[in-house]
């Protein structure tokens, strides 16, 4: 017996519902791309600016240690040197050897001094101060926690609404397809266009690993805010040197944003899990219909 459903005209209500549901899925993916892109930019910003931990700071430190070798009588392995200092100066000596610097050459010393000066300038102008394209304005790196918290809150809220709308569109599309007797067609058309959602497909085993990876992406903004809050808390003494009031504002906004992000992330995860359950329920229904039409054993869709 032929198990294929009858052809459906392009103006069919089912196809209109499929198009609407597909558009809602595309909106959710767009928000996901914005969220991940913002997470990467924020992570790069505060990772490079953490006190003494960035590559730029290490470049400056190794050159400052290397300048010690140009001082007459300097002994990097002297009895008064601690183990940590001996390791630092050993790396500095390796830097001098790799760069072919001569500690007896005054010009090489001046070159290293110029490099330290330029690197410090870059650290101030490019790392400590963030330039906003087009507007030409700048803001201090310490304010990244405030702006990132507000941005992630808005994006996660946008993502939550997009996923909620997507789930409602799926339900409406499946209901219309069920009423029109075109549930399998609707399921196949929507399933083929899913990216972040992994619905059961014909002949494809559903691997839970990929499902978990897709869900893990939801936690990226929350993780970024948590790491940023920890760094701000650990390095708060540096901020208090500049302004105790501004540092307290930064910690409060960063902490509140972290809590809101956790709530919104949980909402997004819950909606995603409801969508997975919906896909499985419809998959079982489609599988049952296919079995009744073909007379084959059930389980064509639900292979995972």
Protein architecture, described:
- It is a single chain.
- This protein has 304 residues and is mainly α.
- Helix content is 71%, strand content 2%.
- It contains 10 helices and 2 strands, in the order H-H-H-H-E-E-H-H-H-H-H-H.
- The protein has helices spanning 13-49, 55-67, 83-98, 106-128, 144-180, 183-191, 208-216, 220-234, 236-242, 244-294, and strands at residues 129-131, 138-140.
- The protein has a two-stranded antiparallel ribbon.
- A hairpin with a 6-residue loop joins strand 1 and strand 2.
- Helix 5 runs parallel beside helix 10 (244-294) and helix 8 packs antiparallel against helix 10 (244-294).
- The chain is elongated.
- The model has no long low-confidence stretch (mean pLDDT 83).
Short description:
The protein has 304 residues and is mostly helical.
Strand order of the largest sheet: 1-2
* Helical proportion, percent range: over 70%
The first-to-last residue Cα distance is: 27 Å
SS content category: mainly alpha
**Uncertain segments of ≥5 residues (pLDDT<50)?**
none
| Percent of residues in β-strands | under 5%
Query: Major β-sheet, in short?
Result: 2 strands, antiparallel
Helix and strand run: HHHHEEHHHHHH
Beta-strand segment tally: 2
Average predicted local confidence, pLDDT: 83
Give Rg in angstroms: 29 Å
State the shape: elongated
Q: Note the total helix count.
A: 10
């Amino acid at each position: 017996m032929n198990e294929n459903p009858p052809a459906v005209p392009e103006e069919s209500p089912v196809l209109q519902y499929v198009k609407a549901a597909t558009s809602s899925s595309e909106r959710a993916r767009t928000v996901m791309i914005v969220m991940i892109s913002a997470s990467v930019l924020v992570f790069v910003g505060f990772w490079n600016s953490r006190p003494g931990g960035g590559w730029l700071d290490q470049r400056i430190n190794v050159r400052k240690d290397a300048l010690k070798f140009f001082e007459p009588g300097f002994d990097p392995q002297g009895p008064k040197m601690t183990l940590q200092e001996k390791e630092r100066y050993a790396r500095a000596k390796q830097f001098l050897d790799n760069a072919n610097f001569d500690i007896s050459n005054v010009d090489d010393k001046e070159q290293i001094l110029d490099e330290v000066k330029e690197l410090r300038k870059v650290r101030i102008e490019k790392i400590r101060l963030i330039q906003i394209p087009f507007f030409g304005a700048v803001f201090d790196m310490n304010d990244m926690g405030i702006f990132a918290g507000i941005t992630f809150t808005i994006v996660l809220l946008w993502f939550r609404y997009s996923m909620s709308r997507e789930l409602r569109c799926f339900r409406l599309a499946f209901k219309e397809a069920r009423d029109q007797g075109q549930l399998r067609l609707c399921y196949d058309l929507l399933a083929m266009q899913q990216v972040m959602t992994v619905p059961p497909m014909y002949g494809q085993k559903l691997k839970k690993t990929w499902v978990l990876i897709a869900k893990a992406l939801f936690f990226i903004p929350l993780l970024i805010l948590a790491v940023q809050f920890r760094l701000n808390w650990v390095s708060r003494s540096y901020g208090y040197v500049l302004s105790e009031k501004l540092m307290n504002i930064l910690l409060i906004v960063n902490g509140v944003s972290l809590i809101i992000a956790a709530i919104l992330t949980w909402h997004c995860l819950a909606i995603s899990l409801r969508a997975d359950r919906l896909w499985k329920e419809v998959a079982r229904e489609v599988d049952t219909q296919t079995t009744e039409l073909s007379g084959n054993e059930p389980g064509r869709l639900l292979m995972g």
